[in-house]
From TrEMBL:
UniProt xrefs under SUPFAM superfamilies: SpoIIaa-like
Originating species: Streptomyces nitrosporeus
Residue stretches making up the STAS domain: 28-119
Domain of life assignment: Bacteria
Alphabetized InterPro entries for the sequence: MlaB-like_STAS, STAS_dom, STAS_dom_sf
PANTHER family xref list: ANTI-SIGMA FACTOR ANTAGONIST TM_1081-RELATED, ANTI-SIGMA FACTOR ANTAGONIST TM_1081-RELATED-RELATED
GO molecular function, one term: anti-sigma factor antagonist activity
The name this protein goes by in its record: Anti-sigma factor antagonist
Family matches, as PROSITE patterns: STAS (PS50801)
Length: 120
């Protein structure tokens, strides 16, 4: 686990991480694009840094267009490190979670507001 390193900030559109911010006591990481072994590193770093500093991390994956096993592995790792909430609305991403059996393991929400509110 990474120590108390402040979360990583890339500018909009420069990587797989679109934005990061705190809201309602949660750290939100907005991801974008295709997430595979060639592109997932900025998201990997952002998620690990967030998990080291926040008890709840929300991954907004509404702009994710593809994910491979590297992305799925990251989600499983984060689930062990923090309370991970995933905003996922695309049928493709939800189907990927279902096929991999992650739909039963991840806390998925239809929008950011619901994810911030948490289980309820």
């Amino acid at each position: 686990m990474i120590g108390n390193i402040p979360p990583h900030h890339d500018g909009p559109g420069t990587s797989s991480v679109l934005a990061e911010f705190e809201r309602a006591g949660c750290w939100v990481v907005q991801a974008q694009g295709e997430l595979d072994s060639d592109t997932v590193d900025p998201l990997y770093l952002a998620m690990w840094q967030a998990a080291a500093s926040y008890g709840v991390v929300v991954l907004d994956a509404t702009s994710v267009t593809f994910g491979d096993s590297t992305f799925l592995g990251l989600l499983l790792q984060m689930r062990e490190e923090t309370e991970l909430r995933v905003v996922a609305t695309s049928p493709q991403l939800l189907r990927l979670f279902s096929l991999a059996g992650l739909d039963r393991m991840l806390d998925c929400y239809p929008d950011l507001g619901a994810a911030l509110a948490g289980p309820g």
